[in-house]
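Bumping my old thread because nobody answered last time. Still need a sequence for this structure:
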């Protein structure tokens, strides 16, 4: 067992290995494979197989610098997407109690309680004041 492990380590030396992008592509491919078992779509099967191959390609790739850069770009993109999803879910949760406005001067998103009538909103970022119905 130890010898097998050593041979595997030797094989993986200088290769990219598992990273966040490869792992996420693999998880998405698994989810698509689950959907594919019910839908039996050819294009979904092709997409699933391509995802698996891409993950394996990333793990075995010797161009580590390029894979690290791709992973870095992916992580930035993913964090932006997660931030937007978090904001959107919070907005959905607060829909009953709050209005969301955008500051006309700086674009800052502002949360204002509903049912207070016509109010003057002051942007905490730039100090701009504007009237809105809440
Ligand atoms: Zn502002």
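Sorry it took so long. Here it is:
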């Amino acid at each position: 067992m130890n010898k097998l492990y050593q041979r595997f380590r030797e094989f993986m030396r200088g290769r990219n290995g598992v990273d966040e992008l490869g792992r996420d592509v693999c998880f998405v491919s698994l989810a698509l494979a689950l959907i594919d078992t019910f839908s039996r779509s050819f294009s979904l099967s092709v997409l699933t197989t391509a995802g698996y191959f891409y993950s394996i390609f990333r793990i075995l790739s010797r161009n580590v610098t390029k894979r690290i850069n791709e992973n870095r770009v992916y992580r930035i993109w993913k964090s932006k997407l997660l931030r937007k999803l978090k904001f959107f879910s919070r907005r959905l949760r607060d829909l009953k109690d709050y209005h969301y406005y955008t500051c006309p001067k700086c674009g800052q998103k502002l949360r204002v309680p509903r049912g207070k009538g016509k109010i003057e909103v002051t942007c905490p970022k730039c100090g701009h004041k504007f009237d809105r119905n809440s």
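Residues 64-93 form the longest helix (30 residues). Let me know if any region looks off to you.
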